[in-house]
User: What shape does this take?
Amino acid sequence: MSVFEMPKPAEAGEPPGQARLRYWVDGGGLLRRLELRTRIGAFAQLDLDPGPVPWISPVPLD
Assistant: This one.
């Protein structure tokens, strides 16, 4: 698994691992995780598990 960071220009002097946006890509090139951080320390992480998407009935437009 590879981890990529997307530092903003203001984060240029920060050490590795401190960028606000990071994402994980597996060996096959699939996105597996997104990680977002705010300036005040809030944290969000989304883990992705590729698989079939269930069918959802359409919403009627009445």
In short: The longest strand covers residues 31-37. The two ends are 47 Å apart (CA to CA). The chain has a mean pLDDT of 87. DSSP finds no helices and four strands in the chain.
